[in-house]
Design goal:
CATH topology: TIM Barrel
Strand order of the largest sheet: 3-16-15-10-9-8-7-4
Distance between the termini: 37 Å
CATH class: Alpha Beta
CATH superfamily: Aldolase class I
Bound molecules: ligand RRO
Number of strands: 16
CATH architecture: Alpha-Beta Barrel
Number of domains: 1
Number of helices: 9
């Protein structure tokens, strides 16, 4: 195994800054143990709800040449099961992060209150699931986000991060940054999939996935420029005490390098992990190491956030 690049998120040490994203291959104990056995810097769970969910009807995930589309609909074991397996996950000696995506404010408060009493290292509050039928993405509603964070910070005793959707308007970056800066948020993960895309198979004249008439979250290469812009603008606007995790279309060591240049302290791998499995972490890590070594860099802080101007 080659050298890994360590980092910290809200003071929690990660042996590698390259981790799994919440979503692919992180729902069952077996899948989470496979992440534990990989070089992923943390074990991050699938977003959990109050009750277990089967999710949306299949087919609900498809790969395409430039990425993926999904409308999983939050299939997960329910938060109590994730709490039960935290001790088994802690045996891998890397931070355990539980992603929380309650279907209401009350559900989020219940789940987070229960997580307070566990050994979980970090909580990632998902305010950006695009695929639950009838539920809007909370983080596109700024007053709802403000209220959610105000209520959550009253109960949360763990270090808290927020998973954001991609924003596309400069004013929206200002709006979300002002809210994050005024709450007890330790990190942000930017970004979730681009919600409600549509991919059509011209041969069959049908969409690729079944739920919601084929509408789903877009990940992979399609997403990378948007994700990089979100990381960069948040790096410029957020207080330095809020760490940024980059996620969206990272499939090579050079992709990871670009996210660190934009300001990310860690990166998460979604679509590439789904497509390639847990070996992708070591491959991306090796590619990253040889790329930054050639440039003469020794650690992330040598170049993090130091995107040059043209
Ligand atoms: O389960 C999903 O359909 C899903 C979630 Br919770 C999310 O946050 N992002 C996504 O692309 N899919």
């Amino acid at each position: 195994m080659s050298a890994m690049f360590p980092t910290t998120l809200c003071g929690v040490k990660l042996e590698s800054f390259i981790c799994n994203a919440s979503g692919p291959r992180c729902t069952t104990l077996q899948e989470l143990e496979a992440i534990g056995n990989s070089t992923s810097g943390a074990i991050l769970t699938k977003s959990c709800t109050k009750e277990a969910r089967d999710g949306n009807p299949e087919p609900r995930y498809q790969d395409v040449p430039l990425g993926s589309i999904n409308s999983m609909g939050l299939p997960n074991l329910g938060y109590k099961k994730y709490i039960e397996i935290i001790p088994q996950l802690k045996k891998f000696k890397k931070p355990v992060i539980v992603s929380v995506s309650g279907l209401s404010l009350g559900d989020n408060l219940e789940i987070i209150t229960a997580l307070n009493k566990t050994d979980v290292d970090l909580i990632e509050l998902n305010l950006s699931c695009p695929n639950v039928i009838g539920k809007p993405q909370v983080a596109y509603d700024f007053p709802a986000t403000e209220n959610m964070l105000t209520q959550v910070q009253k109960v949360c005793k763990k270090k808290l991060g927020v998973k954001l959707p991609p924003y596309f308007d400069m004013v929206h970056f200002d709006d979300i940054a002002a809210i994050l800066n005024s709450h007890k948020v330790g990190f942000v993960s930017a970004v979730n999939s681009i919600g409600n895309g549509l991919i059509i198979d011209p041969q069959t004249e049908r969409p690729l996935i079944k739920p919601k008439g084929g509408f789903g979250g877009i990940g992979g290469k399609f997403l990378k420029p948007t994700a990089l812009a979100n990381v960069r603008r948040l790096y410029e606007l957020l207080d330095r005490k809020i760490d940024i995790v980059g996620v969206g279309g990272i499939e090579s060591g050079v992709d990871a390098f670009e996210f660190v240049l934009a300001g990310a302290k860690a990166v998460q791998i979604g679509t590439a992990f789904m497509q390639q499995g847990p070996k992708c972490f070591e491959r991306i890590s090796n590619e990253f190491e040889s790329y930054v070594k050639k440039k003469g860099y020794r650690e992330l802080e040598d170049f993090r956030g130091k995107l040059k101007a043209l």
